[in-house]
Amino acid sequence: MRSALGLLLGLAMVSALSGCASVGRSGPTVVASFYPLQFVAQRIVGDHAKVLNLTAPGVEPHDLELTVRQTAEISASTAVFFEHSLQPSVDQAVAADAPAHALDTTAVVPLRNGDPHFWQDPTLLARVARAFTRMMVAAEPAHAADFRSNDARLQRDLRRLDADFRSGLAHCRIRTLVVSHDAFEYLGRRYHLAVHSIAGITPDAEPSPQHLQQISALVRSEGITTVFNERLASPQMVDALSHDLGVRTAVLDTLEGLTSTDPHANYLSIMRANLAAIQKADSCS
Ligand SMILES: [Zn+2]
User: What is the CATH number assigned to the segment(s) 25-162?
Assistant: First the structure.
């Protein structure tokens, strides 16, 4: 009995060890550093590669610290897909030991004013998807035709999304958004909305009393109906402000991490939910 148990434990240890050592060996893997990049990677590679996301659902990507295992996954992967400066620990891992194929989105879409949230403009995500497709064609040429046709479908979906935003936000009584962290500048620029954030680029920065006064004055002078919260940040700041000002709160998803419990939710459906929330808040027709 004892020796049988010992044998079983021994086997379990061997399989655990070989599980560790087999990172990256079972077919091509793509490591994406956070959700919108995972979405693009999955759409382009389909079943031809395994896509790993370094940022677990519900984790704020600005705060990501890599585990030893994730660092090993990056160096063992076929390709890594990341955004320089959003997640310094990913930058360090890529700089220390990058796989043969690496795409930094800032090489395709340069950051504006240090703001990393480019995926809030679907036309910019489309440019990044094109570049990712080129990288995958170079990395796995046997699947080039599939990657290109997957890219064509994704480009079409992103064009439709952009068209829906343009028509959906063409006629609005209010053209201002008050949001909790500064994740919507690209969206505002693309669709001509002024965006004011309560915190800064990172979600947990504390606003100064002067800044809160400015936001309050803006809400009153522009007749703003809604202050937007987001899923990954603490709601207290927005709740307190909306209570003081007597306005509603609603959610705009930054899409930095997939937090929806709906298994079919993805970048496209969540962007459409954001559009509906903006249309309601800004009285768009
Ligand atoms: Zn952010």
Answer: 3.40.50.1980
